[in-house]
Amino acid sequence: MLTLYTYWRSSAAYRVRIALALKGLDATQIPVHLLKDGGQQRAEPYKALNPAQLVPTLQHDALTLNQSLAIIEYLDAVYPQQPLLPKDPATAAVVRALALDIACDIHPLNNLRVLQYLTSTLGVSEQQKTDWIQHWLRQGFAALEQRLALTAGQYCVGDQVTLADLCLVPQVYNALRFAVDLTPYPQIQKVYQHCLLLPAFSNAAPEQQPDAQN
Amino acid sequence: MLTLYTYWRSSAAYRVRIALALKGLDATQIPVHLLKDGGQQRAEPYKALNPAQLVPTLQHDALTLNQSLAIIEYLDAVYPQQPLLPKDPATAAVVRALALDIACDIHPLNNLRVLQYLTSTLGVSEQQKTDWIQHWLRQGFAALEQRLALTAGQYCVGDQVTLADLCLVPQVYNALRFAVDLTPYPQIQKVYQHCLLLPAFSNAAPEQQPDAQN
């Protein structure tokens, strides 16, 4: 029995939704609205489930897990169909490094709570906030583009979908949302386009979620 | 043949130094000074090795790897002595989640380049910078403390050293450096103290490195 606590626009939840879909797993999805009521993630019952007050959280029977990459590695070990990490340790390391380039070096800086701190506590302007978002996306994508030139085939690492692609696609979604020009990143664009041809990726997109708002 | 590009105060490099020591591996350490010459990580030859211009980078024969957690998982697969991840997928996931709680939710926000952006581009004051650092450390540690209450023995998860401890100790080092009061976090303090009893941890500390400055 799998339950995913999710928010349509959370790119970390988006990663897990892709993994579930690729592996053909059904999970009950419980939306946690990150803005409504001052943020439902900050209130009970969710706070008790995940004291970091972030999404996603996955429950599998008695196990409660946070952190999208830990969740995906767990799903990959327990449901080995459509593996998301190569068997060879060196190639697996390259995949994990690309995933972490996004999950550690780009995503955390543009997370909702950070943007809220910038505006509420530091009083930065809307323009400064946009500059901040674009700065970290551009800096991260510039490095990623160079790495993908060495590793990519149809996907981030060769021609198999891996954990790296599950991180890339939600991050590109964010970049487009924040009007980052992708012209300097042809490798990133190419992989993104290939991934979106797969229903597991396109169906996991924010706008396809039951809790999506327009 | 192992080569580690490192900086004494980088907590990501510190994690890898602990892993190497626990596994009894000798690596040639090449210091990359993050402040001198405008940051040696931003210049050749290092920039070609790691386009993200961050430390650490590990070279193992022909393989060049970035991202401390990917490096440690790789070392753990190739050098299985003193394993850093439990075999059971559920326990391994708990370990990885704790490691990522630090590596994704705390560390990236207080990284040098982010602090430089806050002061240089946004013009925040020294006090605002300190508040920022302490805010993310406290928020992260509060969540971590609750998780460790459920998982910790002598170490973060039971009585074996894992990847989670390799992330915790450098983060506590940073917290002490930035004068965060650890009184509210007895579990974190207990694990930190246990880890420092092991020479692999104490010898990997920033002040013990050849490139340390006082």
Automatic annotation (TrEMBL), chains A, B:
PROSITE patterns: GST_CTER (PS50405), GST_NTER (PS50404). Its EC number is 5.2.1.2. It comes from the Bacteria. Residues 88-214 form the GST C-terminal domain. Residues 1-83 form the GST N-terminal domain. It holds the Pfam family GST_N. Keywords: Isomerase. It is an enzyme of class 5 (isomerase). PANTHER family: GLUTATHIONE S-TRANSFERASE YFCF, MALEYLACETOACETATE ISOMERASE. Belongs to the GST superfamily. Zeta family. This is Maleylacetoacetate isomerase. It comes from Rheinheimera tilapiae. The gene is maiA.
